[in-house]
Amino acid sequence: MPYLFDHLDLIRKLLNQSPFGLITDIDGTISKTAPTPQQAKVSPLCRRYLSCLCHHLALVAAISGRPAVEAKNMVGIEGMVYIGNHGLERWAEGHSELTKDAQDYPKIIKAIIKELTPLLSREGISIENKGVTASIHYRLCSDHQSAERHILTVVKASPQARRLRIIQERMAIDLLPPVKANKGTAILNLIQEYSLRGGIYLGDDLTDIDAFRAIHTASRNLDSQGFAIGIISQEMPEKLVTEVDFTLNGVNDVERFLKWMSRTVLEPG
Ligand SMILES: [Mg+2]
Fold first, then answer.
1. Is the pLDDT of residue 236 over 70?
2. How far is the centre of ligand 1, averaged over its atoms, from the C-alpha of 25 (Å)?
3. pTM of the full predicted structure?
4. For residue 269, how far is its CA from the centre of ligand 1 (angstroms)?
């Protein structure tokens, strides 16, 4: 897959499109993977350049599987748009707004967590209540494959949990309301809301595939050109590479790229 730094001329050309939007995933993209989600921190360099880009682009947004308020606190830049819980939630005007079909799910998620907690009390497994979704983490387990199998078996045996959307991420299994909202639908909404003519999406995990596809759908149907950029790491799912236009190697490359982009939008031509 083409390495982004070998094709900066194409990005430079794309940046002439206006209004332009930069949309990024958080974990594994602008924040290095940590043993637990609580320990992860956004790279200070990424924060600096994103903050700079906010003043020059029509839209700078972060999309995450984390709750929207957590995404906002973690990145901490005023003027950015924050989409949380895989597109189910958006931070706006001081509070989180849930997408309309998901309103009843925080209660259901709470009940499911109560049911699953004693069944998943194995060493290294932790269940995170994210409001409208839940994540079951197993990064700290010694045998990742057997932990993943165990979690899936328990989840699928629960009549309540079985009705949810079950997503296998890296070292986590997510339980989501069975409504049609994901990073892709969130991006198509943003492209239309901001009338974006150009855009870039950065992401590193399976749930980002919906976002990559949305960027390509918009290029075909919405007169909005965009590139999907995959962040390569040792843990990156192989499937991801076939869905992106360009690649970058890890968070350090994202820092370098955002720096280049900030400079380029400041001195066009
Ligand atoms: Mg990620």
1. yes
2. 6
3. 0.89
4. 32
